[in-house]
Specification:
With 689 residues, this protein is α/β, with parallel strands linked by helices. It contains 26 helices and 14 strands.
Amino acid sequence: MNEQKNANNNSNKQNNKSPKDNNNKKPVKFGVNWMYFLILLMLGAIFFINRDPSNNRNVNWSEFQRLMQDNSFSELSVNLNDNKVIAKIKPEKVNIILGTDSLVRPNPLLGNPEATVTVTIPSADRFSDFYEKTASAYGIDATVKYEDGHSLLWSILVNLFPVLVLVFLWVFIMRRMSGGGGGGIFSVGKTKAQIYDKSSPNSKKVTFKDVAGLSEAKQEVEEIVDFLKNPGKYTDLGAKIPKGALLVGPPGTGKTLLAKAVAGEADVPFFSLSGSDFVEMFVGVGASRVRDLFRQAKDKAPCIVFIDEIDAVGRARGRNPNMGANDERENTLNQLLTEMDGFGSNSGVIILAATNRVDILDKALLRAGRFDRQINVDLPELNERKEIFVVHLRNIKIDESVDTEFLARQTPGFSGADIANVCNEAALIAARNGKEFVQKEDFMNAVDRIVGGLEKKAKVTTVEERRTIALHEAGHATLSWMLEFANPLVKVTIVPRGKALGAAWYMPEERQITTYQQLQDEMCATLGGRAAEDLFLGKISTGAANDLERVTKQAYAMVVYYGMSTRLPNLNYYDTTGQDWGFEKPYSDETARLIDEEVKRIINEQYNRAKEILTEHNNQHRALTKVLLDREVIYADDLERIFGRRKWLSRSQEILEQQTLVNPDKAAIELLKDPDKEKGEKEKREKGS
C-alpha cells in the first residue's frame, strides 16, 4: 500500500510539474530564416549528391604505371602540394578501367563531368622521370599540367559560389517586391495600416477644437464618438452603431483632419491607410490585405478604420479598360464589400473613408449597411473662414491691423488648406521684408500671390502692350461697376502675375442659387476686356483667351445643364451618376446644332451689350485707363472717384463691405428694424444719378 501511494504521489508530482516545465520550454517558431536555410541545404545536397563516385577511381602507383603504358589517359594534372595526379580517362578506355556498368552522371551545376583516376605519387621529380621514359617508349600523347593545390575550404567555396549568388538574388528580389519590409515575400498579404492608440509614441492627439468650422460635419461624427464612449445609451434603446461614414468634399476642406479628430476624441485604436495601399502587382494581394486589416481591427475592437482616398479601390465595377479582363482592383473591392457587410460580424469596427470623387464609387459600397452616412464637407462659408483664420493665427505674430473678418471676406471659395497657406505665405513675406509682426498688407500680398501667382515686375512689355492691357482691365472694371449683378471690384492691376499680364480681383457674393440675369451680367463683365480692345483699339489680342474659355463653358452650362435657353427650355443633359452617357451623347445631331447656335447667341448678345455700355461710359473708361497706366494698381476707391457711387450697391452690401464691422448679426438686425429704409435710400440714389 505504501509503495502504491508513493508511486501515485510521484506520478502526481510529475503531472503537476510537467505543465510548468512545458511552459518554460519556448516553442520553436518556423520563420523565414528557416526557409532560407532549408533551401540552401537542399541546393547543397543536390550539388554534392550528384558528384557520383563512380566517375572517379583511386589506384595505386603500380597500377597507374600499367595504365600509362596502355596510353589510357588524355590529360594529367599534377598537384605539387598533395603529390597527387588526377588523370582524365579517354572515352574508349572508361568501361575497361571503371567497369562495364559504370555510368558517368551529369551534374546540374557543373555540367557533364569526365571520368578520372586519382593516384598518389612518390614525388613530382620521380613522376617527371617516369613520364619522360614512358612517353618515349610507348608513344604517350597525354598532356601534363603542374598545379599548386588548394585547400579543401577553398574548393568548397568555389563550388558553392554560384549557389550563394542565386540565393542572394532570390532574397533581394523577394524583399524588393514586398516593399522592403520584414518577412520578405511572405508579408505581401499583410496590411500596411498604421495603428495609433494610447501607447503610440508619435501619435499627436487631435480634438474637435483643432477643427475650425465644419459645424454640421462635426455634429454628424460626434454621435459616432459618443457611441464609442457610451454605447449603453444607444443599445438600451435598440440602436446599432453605424458601420461606416463617408466624408465627401473638395480637396483641402479637412476630411482627413476630421477623421483624426474623431480618433482623438473617441480614444480608441485608430487604423489609418490609403486606398492605394491595397493595390499590388501580385494577384490576390489586395483581398488578402483587406482580410488581414479587418482581422486586426476585430482583435482591437472597438476601433476605427480610416481609408483615405477610397476611390482608388472603390471605383464602380464594370469600367475596366481591359474590356472584360480580370481586374485585381475589382477583386479587392469585392472582398471589402464582404468584410464591411457580409455573413461575418464586425461589431465594434467603424469604417471612416474620405474621397472627393464620390460620383465614381460603386453603388454597393454606398448603400446603407456599409456606409450608413455620407457627410458632406463643403468649402467653408464666411463665418467658418473666420474661425479657420483664428485657428491658424494662433502661432503667428500679428499686429492690430489684422482683422479676421476682413481676411475672411477677401478669401471667398478658399478651403481650409488654402487659408493655412495664406497665413504661412503672409508670415514668409513679412520675414522677407524684415518685419517683427505680420501685418494686413502681408496677408493681402499673400492672397494675391496664391490667386494670381508670383508678381513679375521685371517682365518686359512694350508701350503698346501696356496700353492694351490697361484698356482690357479697365473694360472689366467698368462693366463690373455698372452692372447690377456683377461681382464688386476690389483691385485692378496691370503688373504681370504668373501667366497673366494683368488681373482684376472681385469680391463675389456667396449665394446658393444663381438667376439667369446674374449669369448674364457675369458673362457681360467677363467679355468687357475683349469688347474694350475691339471698341477703342479697333483690333483684338490673345489676352482674352481665359475670358473666352470661362464664358464659353458658362454659356454651354446655361443651355445644356440649366435649361436657360429659349429654344431648348427645361432640358438637362448632365449625368449625375458619373456614367457620362457611355459612347454616345444623349441628344441628336440636330439638337447639338441647336445647342451650338444658342451658345453663340447668348455670347454675342452679352458681347454687344458690353460694347454698348463701354460706348456710353467712354470718357470714364479712358480716365480709368490713364490712372491705371500711371499707378499700375487701382482699388475700388479710385473707381468711385471716377464713376461715382455704385448705382446698384444695396444698404446690406454697404454694411457688409465695412472693414470695421465685427458683428454681422447686428447689421442684419439694423436692416430688420426698418425694412423700408433700404428701399427709400435706393430710390434717392436713383433720382440723384
